[in-house]
Amino acid sequence: MSMRYVQIACSNKPSDNKVSNHKGISEMIFQIPEMDAFVDPKSIRLCGSIRCYKDDTLASLAGSKMMMDARLGVYSVINMVTTSSLRHQTTIEQTRNFNRMMSSILPLSNSLGDFQSHMNNTAGTSPAVEQTKASLTQFNADTHFALALPTGFLSGGNVPLSSTFGIGGLQISCFLENDSQVFFASDGTADEAGCFYEITNPHLVCEVMTPSPDVLAQLMKRASGQLTYQSVSSYYDTISSTNAQINFNLGLSKVRSAFVNFIDSSQLNNINTNGLATLMPTRDTGTGGDISNVTEYQFLKGGTQFPKLYPETLNVRDVPLTSVCDPATIRDYVSAVVPFNKNTMSSITAANSNRNWQLVPSATSLIDGSPYLLADGGLCWGLGVSYDSLGGMGSSFLSENWGLNMNLDGSDGNVQSAFIFVNSEQSLVFNANGVQVLK
Q1: CA separation for the pair 274, 272 (Å, rounded)
Q2: Dihedral of CA 262/265/270/272: which sign?
Q3: Which residues are CB-neighbours of 286 under 8 A, at least 6 positions away?
Q4: CA gap 153, 81 in Å, rounded
Q5: Contact present, 212 and 1 (Cβ < 8 Å)
Q6: CA end-to-end distance (rounded Å), the chain
Q7: For 155, how many CA atoms within 13 A lie in the half-sphere containing its CB?
């Protein structure tokens, strides 16, 4: 088997080779053509350069209060990733809210050193918000990037591109995020509301392997094939009461884990605030944005507690104030992304998972008061559950609904957004007539 590297240009790029949601281009399409070869999806990198501007005069953001999420870096600009068969135009996987998914995955699978070293070089990430502000958001030059796209399908085994024994080419679409969701002001009041980002020369690079002649002759005789991979399905709901209930009919047969991150709904697509932060539920920002602590939660299957047969009670106390979050909750959150006993690197720390913050920054304590300006990249919090801790096939939610029930210590009706990500095993069956995804 011979190996070569292929570069795929963006098929819908304009004549100046620059794409920007601000200028009306919300999608980047890359088409890996049909060929009698395999592509290694883990080798796929989205490459290009990014630059941020104050407004249509293309002036730099230097000296302003605008910044981007430190842990996400360039990942902030990708809202959704879709993969499909190029020949049959059948959607294989659609990862919605990709940047919010990465806001949980990245800190739970990378160390602070990773954010400062290779992740900083490839994605512009950093554990320090001021560094990201200086080296990416307000940097008066292009910043180059090479992003891995860790969706389930693009993290699996080799994908056959042949129209005879494969899926008939692979199309990858990356949808760009709104500028108001990408940028935010350090003190909650934007001084450059018209700022935007622009990507130059977007392209994919990947590794393609061509079988030897004898192996290729055997593959050409195959009438069909199958790939199994871990996929992440995205769901969205809102909560606004002291007894919050989330319920979905997943229709998935092999669910391995699920994790949820939260944010005040008023912060989404708000140029003043970080819409990609992973916060705890909060009360009305007009009263100071105090935390509405989750005091108890339980994951449900068909309305009953599962896999734990008891509710998880958090160590929230008023006097003295409990600032450190529960280790059991953090452990389960980490295990939903990477099994805790196999996780060798993580950047969730005591500094970025505590309750010492308010949603509205204090004028006298700006850095300490803001959740996305905390040390080690900003607040990192969420809820997670693993259904595959014994190495099995996960749990079936085909006929029973998936649920999450939470008790909060106070609510004034302030609406919170919950982004739910469910990891399940799926299979892709393909032949010369088409492809089909089995969930």
Answers
A1: 7
A2: negative
A3: none
A4: 11
A5: yes
A6: 32
A7: 13
Report CA-CA distances (Å) from 296 to 153, 244, 307: 34, 11, 16
Residue 370 near residue 343 (C-beta atoms within 8 A): no
Alpha helices in 59-109 (DSSP H): 98-109
Q: Do residues 280 and 355 lie in contact, with contact meaning Cβ atoms separated by under 8 Å?
A: yes
Could you give the CA distance from residue 332 to residue 349 in angstroms, rounded to a whole number? 15
Distance in angstroms (rounded) separating the CA atoms of residues 315 and 327 = 10
Q: Beta partners for 430?
A: 225, 435
Among 135, 12, 159, CA closest to 83: 159
Residues near 32 by Cβ (< 8 Å), separated by ≥ 6? 6, 8, 39, 86, 161, 169, 170, 171, 172, 204, 206
pTM of the predicted model, to two decimals? 0.94
Task: Indicate the helix (H) or strand (E) that contains 121.
Answer: helix 118-123
Does 307 sit behind a cis peptide bond, omega within 30 degrees of 0 on the bond before it?
Answer: yes
Beta strands (DSSP E) in 186-252 are: 196-210, 224-239, 243-248
Pairwise CA distance, residues 133 & 337, whole Å: 28
- Dihedral, CA of residue 274, residue 279, residue 283 and residue 287, to nearest 10: -50
CA distances from 302 to 81, 255, 394, 426 (A): 30, 14, 16, 22
Q: Three-class SS of residue 315?
A: coil
At residue 355, does pLDDT exceed 90?
Answer: no
pLDDT band at 286 (very low <50, low <70, confident <90, very high): low
Q: Give the C-alpha distances (Å, rounded to integers) separating 437 from 365, 366, 430.
A: 52, 49, 9
Query: Hey, what domains does the chain have and what are their CATH numbers?
Result: 2-227 (3.90.249.10), 231-427 (2.70.9)
* H helix intervals, 186-226: 213-219
Residue 116 near residue 126, CB atoms below 8 Å? yes
Structure tokens at 224: 């069909």
Report which residue type is found at 367.
Answer: I
The most distant pair of C-alpha atoms in the chain lies apart, rounded to whole Å, by: 74
Q: Do 20 and 55 meet the contact criterion of CB atoms below 8 Å apart?
A: no
Residues in the chain: 439
235-281 pLDDT tens trace: 999 999 899 999 999 999 999 999 999 999 999 999 999 999 999 99
Chain-centre distance for alpha carbon 165 = 32
